Amino acid sequence: MIRRVDNLDWIKEGMDDENLGDVAFVDFDAFGSPGEAVQVFFENYEVKRPMLVALTDGSGKYFRLTPDPGKKEATTQKLYGLRRHPDGSLKEMKKMLDEFMESQGRKHGFKVVPQEGVYGHHSTLYTGYLVKSA
Fold this sequence. Notes:
Blueprint: H1 7-14, E1 25-29, H2 35-44, E2 51-57, H3 60-65, H4 69-80, H5 90-108, E3 110-114, E4 119-121, E5 124-133
Parallel strand pairs: 1-2
Antiparallel strand pairs: 2-5, 3-5, 4-5
């Protein structure tokens, strides 16, 4: 069956963690930031077994090109629940995503282990995490 529905709507209303079985891998590859989808996913899915979580984040360009620190801070607060904003470099973007995932773990009761093999180009960062119940 094919369903045409917004990812966030499906996570909020259509996702049933009992029917998902043994989820082993979740890939958040949003246009821009995966922050909102990750937050909504973990609000609606209880981590009971280890899984890999992949994040693709293209918001580095925004952080590099936006001159107003207040706008950058508001963006990181909205999308990632963090106050500190990165400068847009891949190194700082990785730190921000690590902090974001750790905050999700504290909020939803799971442990986060950043994975090696981070890759990035231009303004896009690809990274992953092992997530397991606390």
